[in-house]
Amino acid sequence: MRKIMFLVPFIVLFLGACSSESKENYTQMLSAFERNDSELNTMLDETAQNISSDSNREKALQNINEDIIPRISDFRQTVSNYTLSDENHIEVQEAMIDYLNEVEDLMGLYSNFNEEFFFVNPLGDESIDGTLNEEMDKISEQEDAMQAARTHVHELIGENEEE
Length: 163
Prior knowledge:
Layout: H1 2-52, H2 57-80, H3 87-120, H4 130-162
């Protein structure tokens, strides 16, 4: 019995240290997320401007395929690397990963659409066939899904800050 009583303070100390480490990792993850999300959104804005300008469409496609999509994968890996033990923190981490998956899916749709549109409609003809309209609808739905995922991340972060 004395041995158990002797171990209790060490167990409590160990659990407290784990909780403290998880909280520190969570704080670092939030900082990394905000920094990377800001950089990613800047890249997305620049790419959107390039897409809207016909002369920069190829550059926009190159940015999506060679810069943005790999950066999203790196960003997702960064978020995944944080070891968390608190259930609320893990929920935020999973929401961040879901958000990044939505962004990556959206970038894939943007890339496919712009490649197809560029080759199907190289002269910028305003009449777009039904297939491209369907693709535009998919993109719109994916944009909504991405925004909903991003909002969910920020809601979870806000709930955790209140606690």
